[in-house]
Amino acid sequence: MAEDSLTFGIDPGSHTMGYGVITKKGSKLIHIDNGLICAPKKAPLHERLAFIQSQLRTLLDKFCPKVVSIEDVFVGKNARAALNLGHARGVALATSAQAGADVFAYAPKLVKKTVAGTGRADKYQVQMMVKTLLGLPEVPAEDAADALALAICHCHHSRGAQHLDRLVTRRRR
Length: 173
Description:
Number of strands: 5
Distance between the termini: 28 Å
Largest sheet: 5 strands, mixed
Radius of gyration: 15 Å
Order of helices and strands: EEEHEHEHHHH
Strand order of the largest sheet: 3-2-1-4-5
Protein backbone atom coordinates (compact mmCIF):
# COMPACT_ATOMS: atom_id res chain seq x y z
CA MET A 1 0.00 0.00 0.00
CA ALA A 2 1.38 3.36 -0.99
CA GLU A 3 2.13 5.73 1.85
CA ASP A 4 -0.33 8.56 2.37
CA SER A 5 -3.00 6.89 0.24
CA LEU A 6 -6.56 6.84 1.47
CA THR A 7 -8.40 3.64 2.27
CA PHE A 8 -12.18 3.89 2.18
CA GLY A 9 -14.03 1.22 4.15
CA ILE A 10 -17.66 0.33 3.45
CA ASP A 11 -20.03 -1.61 5.70
CA PRO A 12 -22.92 -2.31 3.31
CA GLY A 13 -26.55 -2.09 4.33
CA SER A 14 -29.83 -1.46 2.53
CA HIS A 15 -31.04 0.97 5.19
CA THR A 16 -27.79 2.24 6.70
CA MET A 17 -24.37 2.02 5.07
CA GLY A 18 -21.34 2.82 7.17
CA TYR A 19 -18.22 4.40 5.73
CA GLY A 20 -14.80 5.16 7.11
CA VAL A 21 -11.76 6.87 5.62
CA ILE A 22 -8.24 6.46 6.95
CA THR A 23 -4.70 6.90 5.74
CA LYS A 24 -1.48 5.22 6.79
CA LYS A 25 1.72 7.19 7.40
CA GLY A 26 4.53 4.85 8.29
CA SER A 27 3.05 2.53 10.90
CA LYS A 28 0.50 5.11 12.08
CA LEU A 29 -3.15 4.97 11.06
CA ILE A 30 -4.82 8.35 10.78
CA HIS A 31 -8.57 8.89 10.86
CA ILE A 32 -9.90 11.15 8.10
CA ASP A 33 -13.68 10.75 8.30
CA ASN A 34 -16.48 8.32 9.07
CA GLY A 35 -20.23 8.32 9.11
CA LEU A 36 -23.46 6.79 7.96
CA ILE A 37 -25.50 6.94 4.79
CA CYS A 38 -29.07 6.56 6.04
CA ALA A 39 -31.66 5.84 3.36
CA PRO A 40 -35.28 6.87 3.95
CA LYS A 41 -36.66 4.09 6.17
CA LYS A 42 -40.06 3.66 4.52
CA ALA A 43 -38.87 4.00 0.94
CA PRO A 44 -39.01 0.94 -1.32
CA LEU A 45 -35.75 -0.97 -1.80
CA HIS A 46 -34.96 0.46 -5.24
CA GLU A 47 -35.30 4.03 -3.95
CA ARG A 48 -33.12 3.29 -0.90
CA LEU A 49 -30.45 1.78 -3.15
CA ALA A 50 -30.56 4.79 -5.48
CA PHE A 51 -30.21 7.13 -2.49
CA ILE A 52 -27.28 5.11 -1.11
CA GLN A 53 -25.60 5.05 -4.52
CA SER A 54 -25.89 8.81 -4.92
CA GLN A 55 -24.56 9.58 -1.43
CA LEU A 56 -21.73 7.04 -1.73
CA ARG A 57 -20.66 8.47 -5.09
CA THR A 58 -20.56 11.96 -3.57
CA LEU A 59 -18.28 10.66 -0.79
CA LEU A 60 -16.02 8.76 -3.19
CA ASP A 61 -15.72 11.84 -5.39
CA LYS A 62 -14.86 13.95 -2.33
CA PHE A 63 -12.12 11.67 -0.99
CA CYS A 64 -10.88 10.05 -4.25
CA PRO A 65 -9.61 6.86 -2.60
CA LYS A 66 -7.46 4.47 -4.59
CA VAL A 67 -8.65 1.58 -2.43
CA VAL A 68 -12.05 0.52 -1.14
CA SER A 69 -12.29 -2.20 1.49
CA ILE A 70 -15.64 -3.96 1.81
CA GLU A 71 -16.99 -6.87 3.79
CA ASP A 72 -16.91 -10.18 1.95
CA VAL A 73 -20.19 -11.98 1.36
CA PHE A 74 -21.52 -14.17 4.13
CA VAL A 75 -24.64 -16.25 4.55
CA GLY A 76 -27.14 -15.00 7.12
CA LYS A 77 -30.06 -16.77 8.74
CA ASN A 78 -32.67 -14.53 7.13
CA ALA A 79 -32.70 -15.06 3.35
CA ARG A 80 -34.58 -11.82 2.57
CA ALA A 81 -32.19 -9.74 4.68
CA ALA A 82 -29.21 -11.45 3.05
CA LEU A 83 -30.61 -10.72 -0.41
CA ASN A 84 -31.19 -7.05 0.43
CA LEU A 85 -27.68 -6.82 1.86
CA GLY A 86 -26.39 -8.35 -1.38
CA HIS A 87 -28.19 -5.65 -3.37
CA ALA A 88 -26.61 -2.93 -1.21
CA ARG A 89 -23.19 -4.56 -1.51
CA GLY A 90 -23.62 -4.65 -5.30
CA VAL A 91 -24.40 -0.94 -5.31
CA ALA A 92 -21.26 -0.29 -3.26
CA LEU A 93 -19.11 -2.44 -5.56
CA ALA A 94 -20.42 -0.81 -8.75
CA THR A 95 -20.14 2.71 -7.35
CA SER A 96 -16.58 2.05 -6.17
CA ALA A 97 -15.63 0.69 -9.59
CA GLN A 98 -17.18 3.72 -11.31
CA ALA A 99 -15.10 5.95 -9.04
CA GLY A 100 -11.95 4.14 -10.22
CA ALA A 101 -11.05 2.51 -6.90
CA ASP A 102 -9.54 -0.94 -6.48
CA VAL A 103 -11.88 -3.04 -4.32
CA PHE A 104 -10.70 -5.56 -1.75
CA ALA A 105 -13.00 -7.84 0.24
CA TYR A 106 -12.35 -9.18 3.74
CA ALA A 107 -14.16 -11.83 5.76
CA PRO A 108 -15.92 -10.51 8.86
CA LYS A 109 -13.90 -12.81 11.13
CA LEU A 110 -10.59 -11.51 9.75
CA VAL A 111 -11.70 -7.91 10.24
CA LYS A 112 -12.70 -8.60 13.86
CA LYS A 113 -9.49 -10.52 14.54
CA THR A 114 -7.41 -7.69 13.06
CA VAL A 115 -8.91 -4.93 15.19
CA ALA A 116 -10.01 -6.80 18.35
CA GLY A 117 -7.73 -9.83 18.48
CA THR A 118 -10.53 -12.37 18.08
CA GLY A 119 -12.78 -13.29 15.18
CA ARG A 120 -15.69 -13.58 17.61
CA ALA A 121 -15.56 -9.99 18.86
CA ASP A 122 -18.93 -8.34 19.32
CA LYS A 123 -19.96 -4.98 17.87
CA TYR A 124 -19.07 -3.07 21.04
CA GLN A 125 -15.55 -4.57 21.17
CA VAL A 126 -14.99 -3.56 17.55
CA GLN A 127 -16.25 -0.04 18.25
CA MET A 128 -13.96 0.37 21.28
CA MET A 129 -10.89 -0.99 19.50
CA VAL A 130 -11.48 1.24 16.46
CA LYS A 131 -11.76 4.22 18.81
CA THR A 132 -8.49 3.23 20.49
CA LEU A 133 -6.54 2.36 17.34
CA LEU A 134 -7.47 5.63 15.62
CA GLY A 135 -7.38 7.82 18.74
CA LEU A 136 -10.95 9.00 18.22
CA PRO A 137 -12.51 11.32 20.80
CA GLU A 138 -15.73 9.28 20.87
CA VAL A 139 -16.98 5.83 19.97
CA PRO A 140 -18.15 5.72 16.33
CA ALA A 141 -21.59 4.40 15.39
CA GLU A 142 -21.67 0.62 14.87
CA ASP A 143 -21.81 0.69 11.07
CA ALA A 144 -19.19 3.45 10.84
CA ALA A 145 -16.93 1.51 13.23
CA ASP A 146 -17.32 -1.59 11.05
CA ALA A 147 -16.35 0.44 7.98
CA LEU A 148 -13.31 1.88 9.76
CA ALA A 149 -12.40 -1.66 10.89
CA LEU A 150 -12.53 -2.77 7.24
CA ALA A 151 -10.17 0.05 6.28
CA ILE A 152 -7.83 -0.83 9.17
CA CYS A 153 -7.91 -4.48 8.12
CA HIS A 154 -6.84 -3.52 4.61
CA CYS A 155 -3.97 -1.41 5.91
CA HIS A 156 -2.71 -4.35 7.98
CA HIS A 157 -3.17 -7.00 5.30
CA SER A 158 -2.68 -5.08 2.06
CA ARG A 159 0.49 -6.93 1.08
CA GLY A 160 -1.31 -10.28 1.13
CA ALA A 161 -4.73 -8.95 0.15
CA GLN A 162 -6.70 -10.52 -2.61
CA HIS A 163 -8.12 -8.08 -5.10
CA LEU A 164 -11.84 -8.73 -5.53
CA ASP A 165 -11.34 -9.77 -9.18
CA ARG A 166 -8.78 -12.40 -8.15
CA LEU A 167 -11.10 -13.74 -5.44
CA VAL A 168 -13.95 -14.15 -7.89
CA THR A 169 -11.73 -15.78 -10.50
CA ARG A 170 -10.22 -18.19 -7.98
CA ARG A 171 -13.62 -19.27 -6.66
CA ARG A 172 -14.87 -20.13 -10.16
CA ARG A 173 -12.17 -22.72 -10.75
